[in-house]
TrEMBL record:
Belongs to the LysR transcriptional regulatory family. The keyword Transcription regulation applies. This is LysR family transcriptional regulator. Keywords: Activator, DNA-binding, Transcription, Transcription regulation. The lineage of its organism: Bacteria, Pseudomonadati, Pseudomonadota, Betaproteobacteria, Burkholderiales. It holds the Pfam family LysR_substrate. Residues 1-58 form the HTH lysR-type domain. It comes from the Bacteria.
Amino acid sequence: MNLHRIEAFLAVAQGGSITRAATQLDVAQSVVSRHVAALEAQLGIRLFERTGRGVAMTEAAQLLAPRLRAALADMERAAAEAAELGGQPGGLVRMGLVPAAAQPLVGLLHQQLARQHPRIRLQFVDGFSHALDERLASGDLDLAVINRFGRLDPKGEERLCVVDSLLVGPIGALAQDAPALPFKRLAGLPLVLASRPNGLRTALDEICRRVGVQLQVAVEADSMLTMKGLVMHGGLYSVLPYQLVHEELAAGRMSAAGIVRPTVPRVLTLALSNRQAGSAAVRAVAQAVRGIVRESLVKTVWR
């Protein structure tokens, strides 16, 4: 099978449109369409159906996509391992990050690897822990920084640090002279939280059962940008770590208070895919993450 056809098919499958696939591959839309049409002709099946918003995969495409994605990943990994025989780690490393871990880790990690391991290429994937868990299990990711709640030593994962969650709200809503609020005070506030399944929602549900309250979730949102917008401009509250809102707090665009009795700690862990043994490139990225967190982030915004 032609590699360019496979890459075009997978890009369309991931993005849901020819336009987004062309942007991802940095080629003309006509090139993507031609590759997909050629693959359909080769297989004798339709892979996509047009919709009002782009294209949707057929049943055959849904069966084919994960297998081709895994095969392509195996090819890239084999090439990287062969290159490592020359002594320098190299190749593509696919890394997942929860929003709480993205800033400023991604920038610091890129800079360090560009200096020390220029042959390593990084592909970052943002998402909440549940989605990243699934992609790690399927082999779509090589490693990930994930949120955990309630378990300080998750099996098979390496603890990076523990951070407390804050109650964040609109400007002036949380008084500066009351730096911490009992958990029960959250019950009367309109909240924006991620939709289930979600580790924070599970942790909050468990705390609510223990202390005998029920939270008022006014809106569910699976985007941190949307959550922060609803807090700053929609009059809602949320439960977020300091590193996600420190810039808004410093600029006076929102207010915050600690949560006590009980606190809502989250453990940031480093997890590696158990589908395949990690390459030297994956190990180099993991080591860089450990060093950056230990030497830089826990002393500044990860607190």
